Amino acid sequence: MTGLWQGLSVLAIVGLDRYIKYWATQHLAGQAVQPLVPGVVHMIYVENRGAAFGILANRRWLFLILTVAAVCVILWALLRRWPQTPLGSWSLCLILGGALGNFFDRVVSGYVVDMFEFLFVRFAIFNVADIFVTTGGALFCLYLLFRHDRPAGGKDETDAAAAL
Fold it and tell me: Could you tell me the pTM of the whole model?
């Protein structure tokens, strides 16, 4: 049953991302900056043809290939039940939903629509999919650091040294 909820969550993330990007395209494109939280976050329409911060601009095929590879690895891990706790599997679902949201943009438009910019940091303009990828990535790092145990019967360096 968990798999069903995770699959529905991934679809909900993609749906939310698509809706916000559609809204941004309809209401922000060609418009002035719109305050979302005055003095903190504003909304602006940006077509990002690269990765984070616009790096590797116009490398659409590279991003499509990397996304397909990442999606395959995440699906493999989830189907094999590799994550040992809900934190591990749900964090991968967040990454998967965000990756698919941006993948859709790149396939259909050739760019990703970004719209949120923090005024106090001003280092990147991002979208809903980016929020899920970043949050999922941070949670997955926490999972790997604190919750993921090595497989039963596995050996680590200490076991190998003791065998010598």
Answer: 0.81
